[in-house]
Amino acid sequence: MPPLGSKPAPAKPAAKPGSDRRGFFYTIFATWFGAAWAAFTVSMAAMTLGTVRFLFPNVVAEPPSTFKAGTPEQYEPGVVVERYKQEYGVWIVRIDNQIFALSTVCTHLGCTPNWLENEQKFKCPCHGSGFYKDGVNFEGPAPRPLERYKISIGDDGQIVVDKSRKFQKELGQWNDPDASITL
Amino acid sequence: MSVGDFIRNSQVWKSIFRHPAPKDRRNRVVVMLTNFFLHLHPVSIRKQGIALSYTWCMGGITFFLFLVETVTGVLLMFYYRPTLEHAYNDIVTLGQVTTLGVLRELHRWGAHAMVITIWLHMYRVFLTGSYKPPREFNWVVGVILLVLTLLLSFTGYLLPWDQLAIWAITVGSNMARATPLLGHEGPGAKLLVIGGVELIHSGSDARFALLGQRFVGEMTLLRFYVLHCIALPLAVALLIAIHFWRVRKDGGISGPL
Amino acid sequence: MVGGQDLTPAVQNGLAGYYGLAALANLAYGALAYYKFKDKLQGFVWPVVGGVFAVLALLNLAHVPWVKLPIWYKDLSDHGIVRSLMHFGVVGTAADGVFYVGLGLLILMCFVLAGDIIYSYFLRASSANGNGGGNANNRGNGNGGWLREPLSRITAELVVIALLGLILFGTNAISYFVASIVGFMAFLVWRKTLTKPMVIWGIFNAALLFGGLSMTDYDFRTIIIKPDNVPIVGLVFVVGFFTWLAFRKAVINDERRKQGLPPAEKEEEDKVLVWPDLVYTELICMVVVTIVLIVWAVALPAPLEQPASSTRTPNPSKAPWYFLGLQEMLVYYDPWLAGVVLPTLIILGLMAMPYIDFNQKGNGYFTFEERPFAIVVWLFGFIVLWVTLIFLGTFLRGPNWNFFGLYEPWDPHKLVPLNNVNLSDYFWVRGLGIIWATNDPQSLSGFLTILMRELPGILLVLGYFMILPPVLAKTIFRSFYLRMGFIRYMTMIIILLFMASLPIKMVLRWTINLKYIVAIPEFFFNI
């Protein structure tokens, strides 16, 4: 029996014309064919991105974010003022010497809670989240307290609420001086 | 020569219908092959495949309801303007300015019925195991059609612009705020910050793309209107064509092998 | 009572028509059974039942005031036995006594159930050549000894538990969900009996009677006939009918298979021409649908409420009805999970299903026994987690998303204490007395503090999704894993685990008031 080594090697299959043995990545990255497809893919991706960007207009007509809310003396301790809910989506609450502006947007799914005077709580009709007068959540699915808006006293002595700045308790922002007015 | 014969022998009639009425076996076969609308069907079919107790006819009814929705929807579009100023009033006055204002009812109840029939269609297809090979892909197409049907119904829900509409959409679309990474109240969104600038905020998240603004308002009404009347129906029509085509190509209506 | 009149002449006239139709239906079905199926029993029973309906119709036509649900029944259904007994003059300690006897029975039944499960599936299975688990219908079947069959007996015990729960506590989120699961299980286990025409027609009659009598209650009626709720009433009946139809055919096919016959669908192999057989069927279908739709449209005006106002949220505020199952999930999970991740997974799971299901049997005909796992999972998802939750969201969720019984007036001031606690509170604060607090969650130390606070929950969730799959692959799903391969198995098990996460969270909420397993509101990441 002849040693294995002496066995004649089987003839290599003849390379087919045009078949490139340099592999997949060579075809993709280093040929005109690859370059063309790459350019096509990139331009399609760019067009998709451009389409997505088209969904976001540069200018949005939205109501002004600040409004004046009378003088601080008008607010009595322990009272939730609902006067600005309809137009601006804000409750102004005074607890002891502190006045703050609560957002009327439930932190669960954005419904507008109702202030229940008898039970002294905000109650959301959509999924039953409840918030204390200071905005802290205590029942239902709401994951975090209501947000507060920036509140300050303007030059004319009136309260100015700025809805473009929000303060979230869970981020420790309620201690910010802009988050409330202390009388 | 009767009037009927005269019409049937005219060049006009013959140019439309190439073959005699399907009264004998040969012409019943031919009609299925030469009529555009009928050629969706095969020429012959297993008896079991047309038994109502097996098919429940729910797929067919869903398709029919889609046609009803298209026709009534187009008619309703004549009297409806998707703006804050007009939307609600156009719906209120629809019943008064038109005879047969019942079209709105047809459209709404047809939509509700379509949601139910498409579920039942899916239910039947599942319980008879008709999603199994070779029909796997057509099941996937069907799932997409189901999602599109729900989206059609959802976008249409907003158009009357009443309390029911706006709050259903507010609750529904607020979930998009919480999309992971893409919603401004979703997990991970706060990690997408470049140079101190948040990429995802209430003016650039998934919900904004859906609503066109930060809350459900006029831009939302317009977007939902366009989606409801043009984009989604076109997508559904295309997928229905694929769905029907694949029913035929994957061996016709399912039956025991 | 907040509402209005229980019975008005218009309502009674409507009900007279309703009972009249029910009487006719029974008469017709009785005649069909007698002459066509040669079934003398049914031919006798149903006309008699039809007579009862006819009497009800006449009483309503005469505007008799007492054909309505008694108050004790409404109170039983809404609030449980204690309120109900009040109407029989049983109050105070006597009523409490009845309640505690019932509660004792309930607890006793739970012990019996647990013992039975252990005995039937662990003790007895190990002694009797390992043939435990599943596959109930090959044994002890049909010869009167149905209580000797473990699965059947356990179902019976569960039914007793569910009924006791309903009687003791009335309808609430817990008893409703438990009853729907038990009912689902009972239907599957006893499908052979329950799908018999005689039984199902009886159930249908009971549903008709229940619906008719319930319509005499003002609060029930107000909610049921809201135009947008009508599709859901239809949905319940239609889904019920088609589930029955499918299972009737499945039971017959399974029986045929045991006798070595092909499925009934196979008997009709010969081909027919599409014209006229199919095209005419389709035409008739279209005509019927059109008629139904027109009648519906003329009879019920589409709802139109007050013009939209972005500051007045109606109470309750509901999503479109077909999303109410999702809205119910939102009570238990955060929006990013219940509103985004879970719906996406539902869609992806549905799409993946034909690629996961490796079982080649049951293609093109109704069957249950050839693919029990697939059908049980599917029905659980569709019937229990989708349709019954839609029903719950529509009819039983009222102002402030509180749960209201079927006949309970929707009082916006109903107080339900909901003080939910996070897992981290249970573990660290109440268990170990440690408080992890940070003022600056954005900083690294703050982040680590939060991570530490939520460590137990994070470990639990990771364990659920990373340890359970391999454990299950070695135990319950052993044969599945071997036949499916890694990718199919993992896809299936992840979807199943997500599906199971909803009932799990529900039970945790009901039993220990658990709010979140992982609660990181700082980064909107709550589970």
| Average pLDDT, all residues of chain C | 87
Characterize the main sheet of chain B: 2 strands, antiparallel
And the CATH topology of the largest domain in chain B?
Answer: Cytochrome Bc1 Complex, Chain C
Please tell me the total number of domains of chain B.
2
Adjacency order of strands in the biggest sheet of chain C: 2-3
Helix/strand-derived category of chain B reads mainly alpha
What is the helix/strand order of chain B?
Answer: HHHEHHHHHHEEHH
CATH architecture of the largest domain in chain B: Up-down Bundle
Shape of chain C: globular
- Strand tally of chain C: 3
Strand arrangement across the biggest beta sheet of chain B: 2-3
Taking pLDDT < 50 over at least 5 consecutive residues as the criterion, the unreliable ranges of chain B are: none
Oligomer: heterotrimer
Taking the alpha carbons of the first and last residues of chain B, their distance comes to 52 Å
Q: Total number of helical segments of chain B?
A: 11
Helical content band of chain C: 55-70%
- Taken as a percent bin, the fraction of beta residues of chain B is under 5%
Computed over alpha carbons, the radius of gyration of chain B is 24 Å
Overall mean pLDDT of chain B: 89
**Tally of extended strands of chain B?**
3
List its salient traits.
heterotrimer, B: 257 residues, mainly alpha, Cytochrome Bc1 Complex, Chain C, 2 domains, two-stranded antiparallel sheet, 3 strands, C: 527 residues, 66% helix
Summarize the structure in words.
The complex is a heterotrimer of chains A (183), B (257) and C (527). With 183 residues, chain A is an alpha+beta fold. Chain A has two domains: 43 residues; 117 residues, Rieske Iron-sulfur Protein (3-layer Sandwich). Chain A contains three helices and eleven strands. In chain A, strand 3 and strand 4 form a beta hairpin. Chain B folds into two domains: 44 residues, no CATH class; 205 residues, Up-down Bundle (Cytochrome Bc1 Complex, Chain C), CATH 1.20.810.10. In chain B, strands 2-3 form a two-stranded antiparallel ribbon. In chain B, a hairpin with a 2-residue loop joins strand 2 and strand 3. In chain B, helix 5 packs antiparallel against helix 7, helix 7 runs antiparallel to helix 8 and helix 8 runs antiparallel to helix 11. Chain C is mostly helical and 527 residues long. Helices cover 66% and strands 1% of the residues of chain C. In chain C, strands 2-3 form a two-stranded antiparallel sheet. Chain C starts with 8 loop residues before the first helix and ends with a strand. In chain C, 31% of the residues are buried. Classes of the chains: A alpha+beta (183), B mainly alpha (257), C mainly alpha (527). Chains B and C meet through helix 3, strand 1, helix 4, helix 5 and helix 6 of B and helix 11, strand 1, helix 12, helix 14 and helix 15 of C. Strand 1 of chain B pairs antiparallel with strand 1 of chain C, so a sheet runs across the interface.
